[in-house]
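Revision sheet: structure tokens.
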Amino acid sequence: MTGLAILDVSRDGIFVFLKVAGPLMIVALVVGLIVSLLQALTQIQEQTLIYVPKIVAVFAALLFMLPFMGDALAGYMTRIAARIVSGG
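Predicted:
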């Protein structure tokens, strides 16, 4: 396996990781920002208040995005398996 092939597999893996994890991280960021804004507006300074809405939102986004995530990971595995079968 050449260095170029290794870089290609690595680049593809990083893009798949970003496609799979990116939407969940964006949802967590947006929900955290909204809850923090609400805490600042209402002057409620409870540090544990942010976790429950964030967990619920990320779980809901995970259920919604699961087919897309599975398809992206299956496509990556298919490309890796095709490289293995072709000998590199």
